[in-house]
Amino acid sequence: MKSSVADDTQEKFETARNECISETKVSRDLADGLKEGKFVEDAKLKEYIFCVNKKIGYQNENGDFDYDVVADDFQQRLAKAKSECLSEVKVDKTLVDGIKEGKFADDSALKEYIFCVNKKIGYQNENGDFQDDEIRKVLKDKYSEELLNRSITTCNKKKDTPQEDGKWQSAQNDTKFKEYMFCFNKKMGYQNEAGDFQKAELKSSLAINSNQENVNDIVEKCAVKKSTPQESAYQCMKCIDDNRPKN
């Protein structure tokens, strides 16, 4: 049977792992611990990670990341994770499909599914801790460093359970999420207490495109006041994401 792209990627990764364990003489226990989000301050472990990243094309000899390769690999891992978690969690597929439309049902199996996916793609470990470096690596080519740092600091806060943590990514059509977006925008300086957009701050912080004229056009189109500050925040976020140039 013909192997999938995801299977080929996994095989390439496992080959790189085994070769780098041999080349760097790192403890296999330390290397295996990375799968569970366990990172030990160890020189050989860091050398091992760099070795793997070079072999799979994430970094060059100078340590520079190739974010196109990172993004392509992430999409393959994400597709594989979704498929596996659908089987493992036994969640209603209609609820999973609803996530694409911003519909998040308050369903324990759906939360378990999102947590399952997050673990498999490296966004969370078994304890529910967010892996900020992994998230930053995938999103670095789409958002400014300032926005990423602020977003990760604000959003990646542990809730009562690891499963509850995962839902912030998917609750785009939820009243509480809109309230959160307004809160976030105020802290970022994108909106004031009255809900008015601070367009200058948006334009300077959102690195949507290196073309400043394009940034201006998108902000002018998206930073439009709606019926409530919360709705304004949500619609602006959605509009920017919809209109941001896709590579």
From TrEMBL:
A cellular-component GO term for this protein: extracellular space
Classification via SUPFAM superfamilies: Insect pheromone/odorant-binding proteins
Source superkingdom: Eukaryota
Predominant place of localization: secreted
Keywords: Secreted, Signal
InterPro entries in alphabetical order: PBP/GOBP, PBP_GOBP_sf
Subcellular localization, as worded in the UniProt entry: Secreted
Molecular function GO labels: odorant binding
One example of a Gene Ontology biological process annotation: sensory perception of smell
Family statement drawn from the similarity comment of this UniProt entry: Belongs to the PBP/GOBP family.
Name of protein: PBP GOBP domain containing protein
